[in-house]
Design brief:
CATH class of the largest domain: Alpha Beta
Number of domains: 3
Structural class: alpha/beta
Mean pLDDT: 91
Largest sheet: 4 strands, antiparallel
CATH architecture of the largest domain: 3-Layer(aba) Sandwich
Shape: globular
CATH superfamily of the largest domain: HUPs
Number of helices: 11
Strand order of the largest sheet: 1-2-6-7
Number of strands: 11
Low-confidence stretches: none
């Protein structure tokens, strides 16, 4: 994972890039004839001539999906460098402008269709272990967020098998036991021999934390889980500087029913469109949307 900028003094060029999956953030702003970049939007607010103004053009997409898929943000003239993209500015040009190009696209990665199920399992285990190993290279204390679910539990277990010292795990739960997953997190931590840390939050914590959380988030909050993430991050900061998380695991391994349904739709969609008349599909779509 990476996000960096390199100034080529000999060619008078600035080269920037962001990692393939966008783990590291990269924001940039164009202010008159100046170019600025940062890992957080709020850092750009410190620039003397920068004015934080609402990007009204982005509101329809944000209110529809809860996020912005393209390079725009909710601030005018502030953009994000998308995952797998690079940016170059050539100051020798007549009118220097940021030129963004894509250097990696998941759709261009050929699938391994010749592998049997046993080979897929073996290769996944090997790649997963190596990926976790590569993210353990750090010169500062490192831990892992642990919810007790499949994704974070798998990462914590692999970390425990690779590290000599006990793994630091951090979990957050709710005062209402029916909504808390802490028993699962405790069981996993005990099973792998990790040093377990947890924090409890109640209804009042949700509202009292919002002002500080909004400041950290840079843009409006959409997911309520951001509050829980804020609390467990604060807990982790007391002992470590870097944490691994299971973000994206549910999408990869179909951790929720909606993702399994999406896979079924991908497989059955072509057959549905091929054999079901268009007027029937339109009627079904209308009935589902009403």
């Amino acid at each position: 994972m990476f996000a960096f900028a390199i100034w080529d003094a000999r060619r008078n060029r600035l080269f920037c890039a962001r990692d393939r999956l966008g783990i590291k953030p990269f924001y940039y702003a164009i202010i008159g004839d100046r170019f600025a970049f940062a890992s957080e939007i709020k850092a750009l607010f410190e620039l003397r001539d920068f004015k934080a103004r609402l990007n009204r053009r982005a509101l329809p997409e944000f209110f529809t999906f809860g996020y912005l898929s393209a390079q725009e943000t909710l601030y005018r003239n502030v953009y994000k460098l998308l995952p797998g993209n690079r940016l170059c500015i050539d100051l020798t040009a007549e009118n220097p402008q940021p030129r963004v190009t894509q250097y990696w696209d998941l759709n261009n990665v050929p699938p391994e269709r010749s592998l049997c199920e046993a080979q897929c399992i073996s290769q996944l285990r090997e790649l997963f272990t190596e990926t976790v190993r590569s993210h353990l290279m750090s010169d500062v204390p490192l831990g892992v967020f642990l919810s007790g679910g499949l994704d974070s539990s798998a990462i914590a277990a692999v970390m425990a098998s690779l590290k000599k010292e006990r793994v630091q795990t951090f979990s957050v739960g709710y005062a209402e036991n029916q909504y808390s997953e802490l028993p699962y997190a405790r069981a996993v931590a005990n099973h792998i021999g990790a040093e377990y840390n947890e924090v409890l939050m109640g209804p009042e914590d949700f509202f009292t934390s919002l002002p500080r959380l909004i400041w950290h988030e840079d843009e409006p909050l959409v997911w309520p889980s951001s509050v829980a993430l804020f609390f467990v991050s604060r807990l982790a900061s007391e002992k470590v500087k870097v944490v691994l998380t299971g973000e994206g695991g549910d999408e990869l391994f179909a951790g929720y029913l909606k993702y399994r349904i999406a896979l079924w739709n991908l497989r059955g969609g072509p057959l549905y469109r091929a054999f079901v008349p268009r007027f029937v599909r339109q009627a079904v779509r209308k009935a589902l949307s009403s």
